[in-house]
């Protein structure tokens, strides 16, 4: 009754406001009607009807607007009433479970079935999720101690996944509650990668810094007047600073590649000319390691879309590794050939050494940052542990891929598969 009175008062106020806003128009209309009545001598009933029409014209827009607003609200309410809880739950991309005060599952959306499996209406949540943090979450909301809460939960099977789980009541006095599982696995994985990367980078920089600090301390103390020791220590310090500079350069290269993951289209690279330039630039290194570089190129044009400087870096890293780690084989074969394998035709550039090879268990991880097959050998060869990671990033930008084939004792072959278009 009070709501009805309030609505009536609202209508009255609206009509009064409309009349006030139209007061000058009404006044002009009244004057015009009275003048016509006085001059033309028309019937008083006609004058009264005209005045009523003027009054209605001033009031009706308000009623019309109210009716339009009411219709819109009615349509909206009708549309919401047609949406069942199942439809709303299905629209949520994250796993969602609705349960009652007995912690019994009432409904679970498709994402929940896919994530957890083996759940069905009527099943007990307490039996399905036995982790202490989930039990505490359910107890807290069912006891009424909290209206909503959030916990971190780890699902072990069928695969390990991390979730941020939130629970809250549904509506008022419905005795229903909803659990939503927000998958945090990818975020956790990225956080671990970032932490590992910082730890590895710090370790790689700390080692040469500690060496340099030790030599400086020795030069300022016992070896202050020892010319031979001074020259030896300065040579080692120069080598260590060079190692740190290479590491920083590689870190900056990775950072630049990650900041621009997409390649600008329209640029074409001549692979024959690019690979020849790489071989010429690494000629002194090959001679120093007593390695002969052989060329085996296909006939005809060998062009691919891409960035020349980045592809130069790819082949430089691969050929440098072949000369250093395949030194015992005495030769490296660089081949360029057309490839029809795969969905699109392309060109393969393969760098093959005949050194000790790579054990099979290391091949899947060899392109990870700071991953080394042999730590001591890598550091002896002045490696930073980032070269193949840079190669992988560049090839991803070029929609290309790297394949590695190796057999212990028979060397390794690194093949770059580049699309021709």
From TrEMBL:
Keywords: ATP-binding, Cell membrane, Kinase, Membrane, Nucleotide-binding, Phosphoprotein, Transferase, Transmembrane, Transmembrane helix, Two-component regulatory system. Residues 200-421 form the Histidine kinase domain. Its EC number is 2.7.13.3. It is found in: Cell membrane. Its main location: membrane. It is an enzyme of class 2 (transferase). The chain crosses the membrane at residues 21-39, 45-63. SUPFAM superfamilies: ATPase domain of HSP90 chaperone/DNA topoisomerase II/histidine kinase, Homodimeric domain of signal transducing histidine kinase. GO terms for biological process: cellular response to phosphate starvation. GO terms for cellular component: plasma membrane. It catalyses: ATP + protein L-histidine = ADP + protein N-phospho-L-histidine. PROSITE patterns: HIS_KIN (PS50109). This is histidine kinase.
